[in-house]
Amino acid sequence: MPEVIFNGPAGRLEGRYQPSKEKNAPIAIVLHPHPRFGGTMNNPIVYELFYMFQKRGFTTLRFNFRGIGRSQGEFDHGSGELSDAAAALDWVQSLHPDSKNCWVAGYSFGSWIGMQLLMRRPEIEGFMSISPQPNIYDFSFLAPCPSSGLIIHGDADKVSPQRDVNGLVEKLKTQKGILITQKVVPGANHFFSGRNEDLLAECEDYLDRRLDGELVPEPAPKRIR
């Protein structure tokens, strides 16, 4: 797994990158938790998600937001981190111009950044939002959410209570043309302590089913004139 350094808006960004053997393979970007609370690209959940996509033939990147590890710059409360994520996707796409589709997976703070990136980039066809925090971060920009995806969290999450995540899911489920899949991991807290395997199993199942053409809305029937 090559260590990479690429240019971001606030200086160099440090990442781990694994290209697919297929020229037109989809791209997956994995975004880490809050930089001010110990979040890095080496978070165990981020690490496992990276390998989940890699094993399925994706060209895969995880990286440190500005100010973390060898990434230059300073924490920017989300705005700069979103620019970092966009620069990371630009960098991978410059190396893989034949890749037309992309997925984004984010954990906690990273899920908020990932969902914002989703709104900016129409090539993102799927997302995984792990332990999102709609009680802390504003998700009203998802109007409408352009892609189908997975929202997964624990029922013992005290950082982001289940009722708040349920409210976000219910709002997204009213939108037409996409399918939001919600999974709740029993007994899991915000960090999935002792439940990492359960989390990964749900994410793998969702990704495999999407790659098989499932869990997307049925196309609207064509009107007969």
UniProtKB/TrEMBL annotation:
Keywords: Hydrolase
Pfam families: Abhydrolase_1
Gene3D superfamilies on file: alpha/beta hydrolase
UniProt GO MF annotations: hydrolase activity
Domain AB hydrolase-1: 38-132
Record has Hydrolase as a keyword: yes
Domain of life where this protein originates: Bacteria
Presence of the UniProt keyword Hydrolase in the record: yes
InterPro entries listed in its UniProt record: AB_hydrolase_1 (IPR000073), AB_hydrolase_fold (IPR029058)
Name of protein: Alpha/beta superfamily hydrolase
